Amino acid sequence: MKFMIIVFLFAISFISGEVYNLDESSEVSISKEGSLQMSISSNPTTGYYWYIDESTLGVVTTDNLDGDYISSQSHLLGAGGSQIFTLYCTDLCVEGENTSVKLEYMRSWEKEPIEIVDVTVYIVS
Ligand SMILES: *[C@@H]1O[C@H](CO)[C@@H](O)[C@H](O)[C@H]1NC(C)=O
């Protein structure tokens, strides 16, 4: 299982470069005609899950507002894992500018997130 996760993460990074870890930094870079991936810790057994706030998209966009969930290597019940999100540049991307994308950690049946991460996305060449 551990091996599969490592292979999977390697495959992701091979396809599209770095996977940014939002647990460490909320600043990421995207190339003008490219995409990026970013991961963030998540524990769905609590009912909480990360969602991209759709209203913050425009300059960059995604095909999946709730990302892809990857369970952790640990088999402990409730240990959690992480969600991986992909962002794509649209035609509105201008090199040298930045945009921000908000992620909210919330229960689908509740309106208020318990945590918000404001990701600054720098557009590079
Ligand atoms: C992001 O871009 C705005 C202009 O749109 C600029 O004022 C701001 O300083 C930039 N932020 C960072 C962190 O570079």
Descriptors for this entry?
single chain, 125 residues, mainly beta, Immunoglobulin-like, five-stranded mixed beta sheet, four-stranded mixed beta sheet, 1 helix, 9 strands, globular, binds 2-acetamido-2-deoxy-beta-D-glucopyranose
- Total domains: 1
Number of helices: 1
Q: Roughly what is the average pLDDT, rounded to an integer?
A: 88
Beta-strand content? 35-45%
Helix/strand order: HEEEEEEEEE
CATH class placement: Mainly Beta
Compute the separation of the termini in Å. Answer: 37 Å
- Broad shape: globular
Summarize the biggest pleated sheet.
5 strands, mixed
What is the gyration radius calculated from CA atoms? 15 Å
Q: Helical amount among residues, as a percent range?
A: 10-25%
What CATH architecture do you see?
A: Sandwich
The number of distinct β-strands equals 9
Under CATH, the topology can be stated as Immunoglobulin-like
Q: How would you classify the helix and strand content by structural class?
A: mainly beta
Ligand catalogue: 2-acetamido-2-deoxy-beta-D-glucopyranose
* Low-confidence blocks of residues: none
Structure explained in plain terms:
By secondary structure, this protein is mainly beta. It has a single domain (2-124), classed as Immunoglobulin-like, CATH 2.60.40. It contains one helix and nine strands, in the order H-E-E-E-E-E-E-E-E-E. It has one helix at residues 2-16; strands at 19-21, 27-31, 35-42, 48-52, 60-61, 68-71, 81-89, 98-107, 115-124. Strand 8 and strand 9 (115-124) form a beta hairpin. The longest helix has 15 residues, at 2-16. The protein binds 2-acetamido-2-deoxy-beta-D-glucopyranose. 2-acetamido-2-deoxy-beta-D-glucopyranose is lined by residues 97-98, 120.
